[in-house]
Amino acid sequence: EAAAFRRMWSFKTELSDLAFSYLFPEEHARLNGFIQRRSHSYAAALRLAEKKVEQMIAADQWLQSRVRRTEIEGRTKSIHSTWRKMQRRDTSLEQIHDLVALRIIVFPESASAAASEEGWEGGAEENSLCYHILGKVHGCWTPMPLSLKDYISSPK
Predict the structure, then answer these.
(1) Across the strands, what pairs with 70?
(2) 151: DSSP letter
């Protein structure tokens, strides 16, 4: 079910970007150009970050007996989503700091893991795994003040 959700989300993103390109062609072209000029550095940064997180998780003995596997996905923020954030905050593109992101999906070894994979909310044990990994990530990269959103306790 998680894979189906990600596919649906990618369709929604693609449609939003396509509609945006027709409704606001100049803004789309400007944002697309900005993102395309930086795409190689974004891709390289995401590959390094993914590798660093994979190594960090693999080296954590506490996680080894608690996590069956993890999926780490890097992505670039969509053009439409970037534009909407600029509109909401009345800000420039240079002031948007989350043009790239990592998503870490945890598949725990626990008995409730089956429920998690079917899309049910995880229990305290699953949340503690996620917060543990989040703490490790914050040990590598310090979050920007006032920008942290807790999608563990309040998923999208």
Answers:
(1) 106
(2) T
Confidence (pLDDT) at 114: 47
Cβ proximity of 93 and 31 under 8 Å:
yes
For residues 110 and 66, the answer to whether their CB atoms sit within 8 Å is: yes
**Which residue, among 149, 148, 102, 152, has the nearest Cα to 132 in the 3D structure?**
152
Tens digits of residue pLDDT in 72-99: 999 999 999 999 999 999 999 888 888 9
Instruction: Output the six-digit token pair for 14.
Output: 């693609």
Q: Which amino acid is at 114?
A: A
d(CA 152, CA 20): 30
Distance CA(9)–CA(88), nearest Å, equals 21
What tokens does 121 get?
């909310």
Contact by Cβ (8 Å): 93, 86: yes
Asked if 46 contacts 74 with a C-beta cutoff of 8 angstroms, the reply is yes
> Is 104:151 a contact under the CB 8 Å cutoff?
no
How far is CA 151 from each of CA 92, 119, 154, rounded to the nearest angstrom? 26, 14, 5
